[in-house]
Amino acid sequence: MKKLLILPFVLVLITVADTHAQIFNTSLTLTVRDDLGNTVEGATVQLFGTEADYLAEVNVVVEDVTDKKGVVKFKKLEPKPYYVIARKDDLDNSGGGEQIGKLEEGKFNKATVIIQ
Q1: DSSP states of 77-108 as a string?
Q2: Domains of the chain with CATH codes
């Protein structure tokens, strides 16, 4: 009898867990900082899907500008690694921090990029 009561409960848990992943889009919150650790407002941030696109600076997946807190938010991304270029004036992130690891599907992912 206990087995019959547990089975529906387990099925409901599995259904809820699967639905949770479908409710939330994969997103990325990126903070841009300078080499002193200060946030950078007004930096242009571009995400690329491949290293080749990143190196040639073509086929930008998404692009936005950081807010007054140095933050930019990208929504509805594919759960995969991205290459990033962050620039403001003569500062950029070349030489380090160009790749963001694979994003977790259905999660609010976070990363920080240093420009110098």
Answers
A1: --SS-EEEEEEETTEE-TTS--EEPPPPTTSE
A2: 25-115 (2.60.40.1120)
pLDDT tens across 2-51, in order? 444 454 544 444 544 444 445 679 999 999 999 999 999 999 999 999 99
- Contact present, 109 and 101 (Cβ < 8 Å): no
The alpha carbon torsion through 113, 97, 58, 103 (nearest 10 deg) reads -80
Nearest alpha-carbon partner for 87 in 56, 46, 53, 44: 44
Give the span between the Cα atoms of 19 and 6, in whole angstroms.
Answer: 20
